[in-house]
Design a protein that fits this description.
This protein is of the alpha+beta class. The chain has 5 helices and 3 strands. The protein has one domain: Orthogonal Bundle (Arc Repressor Mutant, subunit A). Helices cover about 60% and strands about 15% of the residues. It starts with a helix and ends with a helix. The model has no long low-confidence stretch (mean pLDDT about 90).
Length: about 110
Amino acid sequence: MDTELIKGTLSLLILSLLKRRAMYGYELATTVRQETNGAFEWKAGSLYPSLHKLEKDGLVRAQWQGKPEGRQRKYYHMTQTGEAVLAEKIESWSIISQAVNQVLEKPNE
């Protein structure tokens, strides 16, 4: 798969998944892999820097959760700012994907 084509979708998909519910990093990667039938295979080297940037930008917030005597996981939650940015990204994606499809689907002359 052409990684250049999918680079811009990382934050869009992360925010979309977090809109459903809070998730930890591995859960995000597993969910996107399952829901895309393996087309998206996020590695820690791209996922976690993206999550940290989204957190720095105020689009998500992180919270450690778990039992005090058990394993702690860092869950990421969508913020109101993140919801607004997600709506903008969805609108942009819709425009871009429609425009690309128009070119790809145009018959040869």
